[in-house]
Amino acid sequence: MQQTTNSNIMKAITVIGAGSWGTAVANVIAHNHPEIVVRMWAYEKDVVRWINTQHMNTEYLPDVELAENIIAYTDMKESVKGTDAVILATPSKVVYDTCTRIRRHIDSKVYFGYLSKGFCRVGSGIYTMSQAIELAIPFLMDKVCAICGPSHAEEVCREYHTALHVASKSKASINFFMNLLLNEYLECIPSEDIIGVDCGSTLKNPAAIAAGIISNLPQCGDNLSGALIAQAHQEMIQLGRCLGAQEQTIMGIAGLGDLVATALSQHSRNRRFGREIAEQITRKGTTIGFFDKLLLRVKPENVLERMSKRMHYLVEGAYAIEPILELADKYNLTMPVYRSLYDVLLDKRDPWLLIETIKNPAKYEILTRRARIKVKERKKGIERMSGLIFKHIVVERLMQQLCSENKKSQVLANKQVYIDFLQQQHLTRHKEYSHELSLYNNFNEAQYEKQLKTLIEYYYDSISDRYVYMFSLLILKLARMFFYLYGLLYRRRITEFFEERISLTGDIKYLKKIVMTANPVYFCNAKDQADSLFVVLALIKFISIPLPRFYVDSRLLENKLLRFLFRLCGGYVVHATRCASVIYRETLLQYMLACVEHGIPVLYSNSMEDESSDELLIQDMIIEGLCDLLHKTTEEIAVIPVGVGHKHYNPATHPVSFLKLFRNVTKVHISRPITLSHFSASDTLSDDTKMMLKVKQRHDIPIYPHYFVAHVLHAAGGSLHIEAIAVEIDSILKLRNLKHRYSVDSIMREGMDFLISNNCVAQSGETVVVHEDKKEAIKYFADYVV
Question: What is the pLDDT of residues 762-781, one digit of tens each?
C-alpha cells in the first residue's frame, strides 16, 4: 500500500454523501490511511447510526465491513469543519445546492474532489459537474478534481482491480487525490481534460439505461447491445466535442470504458434501472386482491395509492436525459439513440422505437412518426366500488391544481360571474342553490384554500355515484323488464308485439373484447335528457360488459328518493347550471378521470342540440384529460361513441315522466371504439380524437325511416310533393353514404306509414302536409338527421 507524502500533516478527509460509491471510496481512503479520520456525511439518520455503531452501511453497501476510522455525521457543517479535503458524492441534482451550503464552512486551501456524475441545471443554464461546483464555490476555480471511471462499488470493496481517471486543471489537486487513492488494486490515471471526463461519465448513464431496457425485451441480446454501445459512443463523442472535450478522453476509460462497464455489468444500477423500466412497460394491468377489496371499504386511499404507485424512473430519466437533448438542440446534433430513449421514458412510446433506432439511427425521424404509446391492460377489481372512494384523491389533486397562481386568479374571477349567473336564472332563493351561494359569498382570497376545499368537497358529494353492485343489477334488470311489459299496453299493431323495446346495435363482439383490456369511456350524443339511462338498460342485456357510471341530468330527478336510487345504480348527477362554475367543471372532470384511471367505465352525455353549451366544453375537457391520462398510466383507453334514437315523440317535461318514457321504442347504437393508443403517435391526439368522436356521433345515430321523411318535410316548411320527398331522401342517403343500408322505397313506405298512422301528416293527392299541432314532433324527428 502506498502512503501519501503528506499523510503526517493530514488530519481529516470528508466524503459528502453515503451512497454505495461514496461509501466505497471512503473505505478505500480509510484503509489506505488508517491514521486519518475519514468523515462521512449522510442524509439518513439510520445510515449514520449503523456506520458509527456497526461499521456497516446496510442501506447502500450491505455485507461490507467499513474501516473503524470512518465516522459518520448528520450535520454537514460539522463534517467539513477543519477538513483537509472534501469529496462530493451526492446525486447530481443536488450538487449545486450542497456546494452553496458548505462554501462558508470550508477553507479556500481545501482540496475538492467529486464522484458525482451528471449535468447540473443552475438557473436557465446547463453545466458540467466541475463547472457547477466552481460556479457555487468561486474560490475553487480550476482546482476541483473529477474522480471517474469504470468502477462498481461492489467490486472495489472486494479489492478487484480498477482503473480511475483523476482529472483537474490543477496538478496539485491531481497529485493529492492520486496519493489518497492509489494502492495495489486501484490505479489512478491523471488527466487535465476535466470536461472530457465529465462528459464521458455523464453521457454513459442514459446509454446504460437503454442497455438495461433492451436486455429485458424479447428477441434482444448481445448483438443489439453491441450496436447500442457503438452508436451511443459515437453520440457521446459528438456532444463532448461541442462542449470542449478531447475525443481521446471519451474514447478512454472515462468514456468508452465506463460505458461498457455500466451498460453490461450486473452491478450497474443504471442497467438494473433499465431492466425494471422494461418490466414496467411490458407488465399487464393491475388486479386488486380480495384483501384489498375489503380494505377499500375502510381505508380506500391506502389501497388506491398502492395500486397507482409506479416506479419513479420518469423523474430520474428526465433529469438524466433532458439536459443532454437540450444541449444537442443547442449544437444542432441529432443524437437519435438518446432521443429514442427519451421518447420511451418520457413520452411512453413503444420500446420498438428504441430497438429500431439502435439498428439504424438514420431512420429515427421516420420511425418516430409511427411510434405509438406502449399500453398495458386496465386495472381490474374496483369496477364494483362506489365513486366515493376517490373523494380524497380528487380533493388533493384539485387543491394542488387550483392553488397555482394562474388557476387561482381564474377561479376568483369566475366567482362573481357565476353568482351573477345564478341571480339571472332566479336560482338564488332555490333550496338547492342557497347553501352553494353562501359558500361562494364566503369565498375570498384571504381564506382561499379553506373555502376552495369546502366547495370541492360539496360539489364532489353532489356529483359522485353511490354504486352498490347487487342493488344496481337487480333494479336495472327489473327496469328493463318493466320497460318491456309496460310497453305492451301501448302497442297499436300486431307487428309491434314482436318489436324489441330497447335494441342494441353495433359490433357487440368487438365491444366485449375491448372492454376487457381497455378503460371504456362512452360518449352519448343525447337528444333527450334520459338517453344515458336507455344506454345502460341496453348494455345490461350483456352480463360480460361492465356497466358504466352513467350521466344523470339533475332535472330528471327532483324527487330525492329517486335521485338516491339512481346513484345506488351507478348514476352520477350533473347540474347543467353549475357547469358555468370553474370549480364544478374541474370537480366533475376529475371525478370521471379518477374512475377511468382505476378501471371503472364511465358514460358521459351531452346535448345534440346545443353545441355551444358548457356540457360540450366539458366533453372536450374530458377528451384532453383522457389523452393526458393515457400518457400518465399507459393503460389503454377506448372512447366509444353512442347514439340513441326514439321511435315516438315524447314532449320534454320537468320533472320527466318515466312512465311516458317507457312507452317508447328505442334503438341504441354502439359505434366502433376509438382506442387512443392507436393514434398516440400524433402530436394532435386530443384534437384528432375530438374530430373522430364528432364524426362518428353524427354518422352513427340510429335512424328510423320516418326521420328522413320528417327531415325533408321540415326543411320544406311542412308541405311537399311526394316525388320531391323521395328525391330529397335519395340525395341525403348519397350525402351520408347510407345507400348500402337504406333504400328510398322502404324509407318512403315505412316512414309515410308511421307518420300517417300517428296523425303527424296527411296526404292530399300527391302532396304531403304536416298537421299544425304536430310540427313540434316533425322537428324532433327531423333533428336526428344531421
Answer: 988 889 999 999 999 999 99
